[in-house]
Structures are given as structure tokens and as C-alpha cells.
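1st attempt posting a full record on here, be nice pls
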Amino acid sequence: MVAAEPDYIVKPVFKALAVLRCIGEADRPLTLGDVCSRAELPKSTAFKYLRTLRDSGFVAHDPDTDTYRIGLVVWQLGQLSGEQNRIREVALPAMRRLHGRFGETVNLGLPDGRDIVYLEMIESTRALRMQARLGSRDPLYSTALGKAYLAALDGDAWRNLVPTRLAPRTHHTVASLAALRAELDQARARGYATETGENEEGSACVAAAIHDARGVPVAAISVSAPDRRMDDELRAEIGRHVAAAAADCSQRLGYRTAL
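the predicted structure (as C-alpha cells):
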């Protein structure tokens, strides 16, 4: 590749990409100080680049450790012809139908270790709405998306994907493995998982798992809204439609016994 002439280099973009590269080449999540040292940038400049990369999904930030790692968008760009892109393509029509019916935010999440990562979303048009960022991640145990995925696993396989101690995200977060097990049993019985204020105060979410042709859960789809707009009756209605949407996605992925 021919090197770009200096006059054609946009310096802020060049520096932001240098930050992205140093995070991608690291063998562990990096602190702001690590990034400053490796990219040879002042703290304020590095922070602005990291915030921009985070908000665009290229970098993921862990607020508990205040560290940065490569975000889902980078992974998406490298997997455009892979299974994950196929899941997104299959899910989008179902997501649009859910959005059209309920007018709330619709999310598609993929499991990654002990987290659920937001691969796609269609935002509510209402002024007050629940919204995650593409590429951001939350614990499996505190989200409806994550609990739907855990409930779809065989037997006690879910136990390997949650910590021994469930760190609270809010004062509503499920507090014990026994309580989480009970919620997963309920999710299996009714075909969808729920959470109210467990991952974020004031939120409510209903989700169901998507299976691939082998019957393995590979993703989950959800509808989220402020909890004041989701009473028990509406939650049950959304649950039925989310479960049907997830089953339709599973069938399109080749899971013939999903319906």
C-alpha cells in the first residue's frame, strides 16, 4: 500500500485510529493512563478520542474497572459474512415488526462470555425511552436479554456464565444464585424472560432467546421501555410477541422445532 501524503492525512482521525490500534493490540483491557502512554497523547486528548470511539461502538468501556477494550463494531466489521451477521439480517424484520406494534426500543443481543453485547437496536421514537449503545455490554444475570439466553441453555450450563457473587447493578438486581435459578425456571416455563430496574433504574425489558439450526441459543431479542409504561398486562402481551418473534428468527436460522 502506498503511504498517504502528509497533506492528505486528517490528524485527529489518524490519532484516534492510533488509540484504537493500541487497544486492539493490547493483551488486556487498558486504562486511560495506559492509552496515554502507548499512544503518546495527553490525557485530555486521549480521553476525548476514547469517548468518541466508545460512543460509536468501536471501543467498549468497563465502568467497574475504568478500562477500555475493543468494541463490538470492530468485531462486526470483521465478521460481515459470518454467522453473527446472518443473525442480524434474520432478526431485523422481526425487530421492525415489534417496534411497529409497541413503539418501544427493540434490542438484539449476543452473548460474549458473561456479558450480553448489543448488536442491533431500533430506538423508540418517544421522548422518554430506554436506550443502550451498540457494542456496549451488560451482565447476563441482570438483563432480560441475558436471562433469556441463560434460560435457553441445557441443564445447569447457565451456572458457568455467572459469577458466584452477583454484584448489584441497582437495588433491584437479583441477589442470589437461588433467586436467579427461580427466574430462569419461570422464563423457560413461559417462553420469555423479564427484568424491571435490575440493570438500570426505571427500566423494564422483556426478552426471548434465538436458536440456531442445532438448537443452540445464539442471541436474544427484547423490547425495553420505561417501567412506568409497562404494566403486567402489557408485559405479558409483549412477552408473547417477543417469544413468537424469537421463534420465527430461530426457524429462519434452521431450527425447525422452534415453533
